[in-house]
Amino acid sequence: MGGVTVRIDRLLCVGFGDCIDEAPHAFALDDEGIAEFGEAVNGVDRGQLIRACEACPVDALSVHDADGNPLAAE
Ligand code: SF4
């Protein structure tokens, strides 16, 4: 999406929802309270995705550019 690849490690996610606060169109919580991609994730701006990744307290989110370089602290 937008030249970046975002991954959610659903085994690490504990459902705090900080990513949703940062990028409410990119992420949502599923029925079990674990993060999943929101329906409008493809329209979300790259900076917002990076901020959401950085906001995750358990590093369950990662964002990489097209060359596989990390765009946020992992
Ligand atoms: S911020 Fe991290 S732990 Fe919290 S819901 Fe998002 S992915 Fe899960």
Can you summarize this structure?
With 74 residues, the chain is α+β, with helices and mostly antiparallel strands. The protein contains two helices and four strands.
Q: What would you note in describing this structure?
A:
With 74 residues, the chain is an alpha+beta fold. It has a single domain (4-65), classed as Alpha-Beta Plaits (2-Layer Sandwich). Helix content is 20%, strand content 22%. The protein is built from 2 helices and 4 strands. The longest helix has 10 residues, at 46-55. The two termini are 19 Å apart. The model has no long low-confidence stretch (mean pLDDT 93). The protein binds iron/sulfur cluster. Iron/sulfur cluster binds at residues 8, 13-19, 27, 35, 55-56, 58, 60-61. Iron/sulfur cluster binds next to helix 1.
Secondary structure tally: strands: 4
Shape: globular
Ranges where pLDDT stays below 50 over 5 or more residues in a row are none
CATH architecture assignment name: 2-Layer Sandwich
The CATH topology label is Alpha-Beta Plaits
Question: What helical percentage do the residues reach?
Answer: 10-25%
What are the bound molecules? Answer: iron/sulfur cluster
- Strand composition percent: 15-25%
What is the strand arrangement across the widest sheet? 1-4
Highest CATH level, the class: Alpha Beta
Total individual domains: 1
As an assembly, this protein is single chain
